[in-house]
Design a protein that fits this description.
- It is a single chain.
- With 550 residues, the protein is mostly helical.
- Helix content is 61%, strand content 6%.
- It has helices at 6-22, 31-46, 65-77, 81-106, 109-121, 123-128, 135-154, 158-175, 180-193, 203-228, 243-256, 272-280, 285-300, 309-323, 336-343, 353-381, 387-406, 410-438, 442-450, 468-473, 501-509, 530-533, and strands spanning 53-54, 57-58, 459-462, 478-480, 495-500, 515-522, 543-549.
- It has a 5-stranded mixed sheet with strand order 4-3-5-7-6. Strands 1-2 form a two-stranded antiparallel ribbon.
- Strand 3, helix 20 (468-473) and strand 4 form a beta-alpha-beta unit.
- Helix 2 (31-46) crosses helix 3 (65-77), helix 8 runs parallel beside helix 10 and helix 16 runs parallel beside helix 18 (410-438).
- The longest helix is centred in the last third of the chain and has 29 residues, at 353-381.
């Protein structure tokens, strides 16, 4: 980006950081982050960094690395929602750094800054920085691994060997061995297009593979200690479950063909991620499709590209996701640094007349639609306080005016206005909309109720394994009693149970006796229903949550 645009770029960069950190202390409103935070909290309270537990039961689903990162944060800052999100946000910042370093090495500074801003303003990246799972960690680990592999490929420096192996191992310990499809796939593609395929078997690369395995050993050891050493444990309804086998095979290939212990109701659709990217990589999705088309066309025409790492690694893993039988929208987030690098060169370069029209229209659609949608949402939401909405309008409105008045180059102006629009939308979502949803979470309120000193001697139970937000916010250990066993299993007299409206209805229909201790308003959905947005119809989709006893 030309030096005269640098102040506005820095302004957008600062605003993007502010948007990402704006929701750091928002109470949890989805179950997954409640589960992951509760598992990390259990590690802290049990003084055990190797074994993963939920509701005091062994848990086998995800590898350990993100839990270790959160555990360190909890040790330093205490147990809280913001301490859970902080490590992920730091890894998000690391992904920005590596995106810049990689792009700067193979392209120019203008494209590097553009790629960083694309990544910072991608819709699902901003959402994942609030609704934290493993994706912010993986974004940094994958692009970081590819960067150091590219540097190691150019010059066999020990520091790049060490960091490439370490980051790759951490990525494997975050999501499993499938992530190497992006990391080593990037190297594979680079060598194939450069006609150097056999160099993959040179000693320098064998050393990288070996060192990566060595750095992954803590994961194997932790799984061995918790599961392989204890074949008597009941996991997934059976004994003799190997944690190592799960890590290497069942959690990866079992999900790929959707026949493992954890299944989706419907098998995958090859076009799932094509239409998912329309909103997940918004507002850059249409331009990304165009960039992929032009890049593949150049490869077909044997036009030399600056690098093949991003195209090879990004598209290979995207294809694997597309053919997988187990698909979730946030899977592609980990590839967004690669997608941003692929897209960035096409933001400002001169295209054909049709290409220029497509690019401008593909960005202006979002630049216009997003602020309009947010204003409509605000009018229906009717929050108690309009201060943050007014601040958002003033700050981002002023930024848009600065862009319009100071930038005369049409492509740059449209690009920056699009950034401004998506940041405005997500600032509102992170500071107004999602906190509004969280305020209706009965699990948070129920946990606050039993955290009172008067209830210090209670034995606390959940009647469903999906009440993980309650488990996290409860200061007391929470055990699990399955709903169907509530009327059959003897319990201590000071036992108290968290129950959703569905659970209470089940007990009532089956004539199981219980006493209601407290009742809380609850929004039981993770999906955002239109009726909830409209304050006048919100009551129709609200439910109740309860604390009950026998």
């Amino acid at each position: 980006m030309a030096d005269k645009y640098k102040p506005l770029y820095l302004l957008l960069f600062v605003l993007a950081l502010a948007v990402s950190f704006a929701g750091i202390n928002t109470p949890f409103f989805t179950d997954d982050q409640g589960l992951y935070a509760a598992i990390s909290k259990n590690m802290l309270y049990k003084h055990d960094i190797l074994q993963l537990f939920t509701y005091n039961h062994d848990w086998l689903d995800k590898p350990h690395f993100p839990f270790w990162a959160v555990l360190i944060s909890f040790k330093l800052f205490g147990v809280s929602a913001w301490a859970y999100r902080l490590p992920a946000l730091l890894f998000f910042l690391l992904s920005l750094l590596y995106t810049y370093l990689f792009t700067r090495r193979f392209y120019n500074k203008e494209i590097a800054l553009t790629a960083v801003l694309i990544l910072m303003s991608a819709q699902h990246v901003l959402l994942s920085n609030l609704d934290v799972r493993a994706e912010p960690y993986l974004m940094a680990l994958i692009i970081g691994s590819i960067y150091h592999i590219a540097r190691y490929n150019n010059k066999s420096a020990f520091k790049h060997l060490l960091l490439a192996a370490l980051l790759t191992a951490c990525a494997i310990m975050t999501k499993g061995i499938f992530v190497i499809a992006a990391i080593y796939g990037a190297l594979l593609g680079q060598y194939i297009f450069q006609r150097k395929f056999l160099q993959l078997f040179y000693g320098k690369w064998l050393l990288l593979y070996l060192l990566t395995f060595v750095f992954t050993l803590p994961e194997f050891y932790a799984l061995y200690i918790q599961f392989d050493l204890h074949p008597e444990k009941l996991v997934f309804g059976r004994h003799h479950v190997s944690g190592i086998r799960w890590f290497l095979w069942d959690s990866q290939f079992g999900r790929f063909v959707n026949n493992g212990p954890i299944k989706q109701k419907s098998s995958g659709n090859i076009f799932f991620f094509v239409h998912t990217l329309l909103w997940a990589f918004m507002p850059w999705c249409l331009l990304f499709y165009f960039a992929v088309y032009k890049t593949v066309q150049n490869v077909w025409k044997k036009v030399s590209l600056p690098e093949y790492y991003t195209l090879s690694g990004g598209l290979l893993l995207l294809l694997l996701f597309s053919f997988s039988g187990f698909q979730l929208p946030f899977y592609t987030n980990i590839l967004f640094p690669l997608f941003a690098i692929i897209t960035a060169p096409y933001c400002f370069k001169q295209l054909s007349r049709a290409g220029n029209i497509y690019r401008k229209a593909g960005l202006l659609i979002f630049a216009i639609a997003l602020p309009v949608i947010i204003i409509i949402i605000h009018l229906y939401l009717k929050p108690a306080n309009n201060v943050l909405f007014i601040i958002a309008c003033l700050v981002f409105g002023a930024t848009a005016m600065l862009i319009i008045l100071n930038i005369k180059v049409d492509t740059v102006r449209v690009f920056m206005l699009t950034c401004c629009a998506v940041l405005f939308a997500n600032f509102y979502m992170n500071t107004v909309f999602f906190p509004a949803i969280a305020s209706y979470n009965g699990q948070v309120k129920a946990a606050a109720y039993i955290n009172q000193p008067a209830f210090s001697n209670l034995h606390v139970y959940s009647l469903r394994p999906s009440n993980n937000v309650f488990q996290f916010y409860s200061n007391k250990p929470v055990d699990l009693l399955l709903l169907e066993d509530f009327g059959k299993t003897p319990m201590p007299p000071n036992a108290i149970f968290f129950a959703s409206q569905t659970s209470v209805d089940y007990l009532t229909q089956n004539r199981v006796r219980f006493k209601v201790i407290a009742t809380f308003t609850d929004y039981p959905h993770e999906n955002i229903l239109p009726a909830f947005i409209n304050k006048d119809s919100r009551g129709k989709v609200l439910s109740k949550a309860y604390l009950i006893s026998k």
